[in-house]
Amino acid sequence: MKDKNANLPSLTAIGQTLVKHAHTVNLEEKRGVVIELFPFIFEASSRMSARAISRFLKEKHKIQLSAVTVSRALSDLKKSWNQYFNVIEHFAKVFEKGCYTSRMSDFLFDDKRFKELTEGLPIRAYKGHWLDLKALCQITIEDDQAADILREKWYAISLDIRLKARPYIEHRLNKKQ
Question: Are residues 47 and 93 both part of a single domain?
Fold first, then answer.
């Protein structure tokens, strides 16, 4: 009589295939998605459960984030907001440096101030500073790119939600002071 288990793979073989698969899965991609979507997940969580958010993302956008992943991001707001701020901080610093007149905390939470600062960027970039043309062009391009990234990734978030994020990232905003 034949042994029932003879055709089954060994547990070691199963374990090895599991490890191989684990190395092919890009976990950073999933972490990046939850970080990039975090402000919107945070806002949606006031009206939807983690499971509903997960289901919506899967059905409407083919993005697989488990309810557990969504819940984990929402359970540690300080960590999640700081991870999100990592995405935009460099651009905020570049923009702040190009402003000459405004601190990051002044324009990140004031849409009107940001709009004032972004109007006429090329002129504002060198106002009061005598720079050679090459340096002038570099500052202008960097400022403009930083403003575009901030518009896309920070100002696309409602002001109410950005203000709720402020206490979690305040220590980073006040480093220079």
Answer: no
Whether residue 164 is predicted with pLDDT greater than 90 in this model: the reply is yes
CA distance 102 to 33: 31
Q: What's the pLDDT at 141? A: 62
Which of 1-5, 35-39, 92-96, 139-143 has the lowest average pLDDT? 1-5
d(CA 28, CA 34): 10
Cβ contact 10:39 at 8 Å: no
Residues 29, 88: Cα–Cα separation, whole Å: 17
Integer Cα distance of 78 and 165 in angstroms = 8
Q: Match 């696309």 to its residue by tokens.
A: 156
The verdict on 130 and 62 lying in the same domain is no
Residue 9 — pLDDT band, cuts 50, 70, 90?
confident
2 occurs within a structural domain: no
- Give 155's DSSP letter: T
Question: Is residue 152 within 8 Å of residue 61, measured between CB atoms?
Answer: no
Q: What is the chain's Cα-based Rg?
A: 23
Q: Is the pLDDT of residue 24 over 80?
A: no
pLDDT at 31 exceeding the cut of 80: no
Scored b (16 or more CB within 10 A) or e, 80-97 reads bbbbbbeebeebbebbbe
